[in-house]
Amino acid sequence: MPTALNNYRTLSSPTRYFSLWIIIGWGIVLFLLKNRIGLIFTHIPIDYNEGWNAYWAERAIGLVQAPLYPNPQNSLIFNNYPPLSFYIVGWIGYFLGDMVFAGRIVALCAWLLTGYFIFRLIQKAGGDKISAHSGSLLFLIYSSYFFRDYIAMDDPQWLGHAFMLGGLMFLLPASQLSPLRVVIAAALFIIGGLVKHNLLALPFAVTCWLFLRDKKLALLWVTTGVVGILLSILCFITLYHNNFMLEDILHHKRVLELGRIHKAVGRLAFFLTLILVSSAFFHCKENRYRNRDNLQILFGIFTVLSLINAFIESLGDGVSYNAFFESLVALSITVGLALSLYIQSPTAFYKLILLTLLPVIIMIPSYLPGILKEEHLIKAESPQWNALITRLKEKRTPVICNIAEICYWAGKSYQLDFFNFQQAMRRGASSLPLEQKLTASPHVSIVDIKLPLKAKRKAPPRPIWQIILAHPHKTEKLSPDVTVITL
User: Fold this and answer.
1) E strand or H helix at 309, and its extent?
2) How far is the C-alpha of 439 from the C-alpha of 477, rounded, in Å?
3) How would you label 161-186 residue by residue, b for 16+ Cβ within 10 Å and e otherwise?
4) Is the dihedral of CA 374, 379, 380, 383 positive or negative?
5) What are phi and psi of 458, to 5 degrees?
6) Predicted confidence (pLDDT) per residue in 402-432, tens digit
7) Beta-carbon-side half-sphere exposure of residue 151 (alpha carbons within 13 Å)
8) What is the C-alpha separation between 115 and 420, in angstroms, rounded?
């Protein structure tokens, strides 16, 4: 009888009780990941930015003898990203033989590493293991469900987050802060900024938090950051023999539209239940959160700034859900810390988990059919994309693709950055460079890919085609051999 009673108590322990949620959570993540991993080594475009990143990675490591940052004035192509990701992906792609595949692998690994850092940061901040698992799983579920186009996609965003969260790992727990840890953390934050420059909320939050805790370490943090940024900029300007990097990144012609407010609000709605649950952490009066390390201030500033920054960025033309990735990271950490307050009450804990998953459950009718069809679409699309790439490879004349990775896989040089060139024109730039390009390039083929199968995959805006198609009516100099291939 005592043995049976002990077994019952063991099964009823909190770890056993919560393990069901952990198993279910990982099951959901693996289900959502399966098809995304299946896309990595296919010639199926996920997003038109993939080819854009691939072309710059080739230039970064010298496979293509062209500047990584061309003069943005009167140019057809633009590079408004910091350079570090192009070197990282470029060298991995050099050994793999494909920059897009390399970028997808790096993005997937960085995303998983971000999830792991969230798990560890919750623990370092005083949360228990179950709550740390929960915060990490919520991050993985939300990102692979609502933002699945960015999972295993050749884009540097997750890599930037991974470096910055790695830096934050050296700052927690606050009781172990030291000058060496601060310098290492600052270096990792700088590296993250050299991957993606608009990740601002966490660096600002850390700066404020350090000044509240230890002004000497805060000054060391700021000094290391400023000196590191200036040295990095100086090194890259020297390497490229010009300042086009700064001009293109800091003065990039991005169009902001107030009419996009509804999109920003819609994306913010995904996070309402996470915000509600995380509020328990900010109202907590326990010493481990409020008095010891000022963690409520650190993560409070991080969360609020990330939401504000994401909302503003979402007003930019062409900005997608990735503007809210920083918010998702911040909320995943604070939700995990909030859940740790209810670890002794399994019923309350599970109610909060269900509340955080409510947006996922509500959107099942909209999202699940597409997820289930994805594997079928992969099999159906592969032959079509491969046939198109083969067709373009056989052309001995210039080819311009509105989906850049198709031209990349066909071995064609980068001719036109559809999105950024259009942004430049909307901000007052001349269309003359494009007209000159079409005039000077006989027999050029312009591939207009309409992406017939995957409805959710993004394509660049259409107005630029009005310039291309209207050009023959403006001048007789255009070669009659310019063709638009509509697919």
Assistant:
1) helix 295-313
2) 6
3) bbbbbbbbbbbbebeebeeebbbbbb
4) positive
5) -85, 150
6) 788 999 999 998 888 888 888 777 777 777 7
7) 24
8) 32
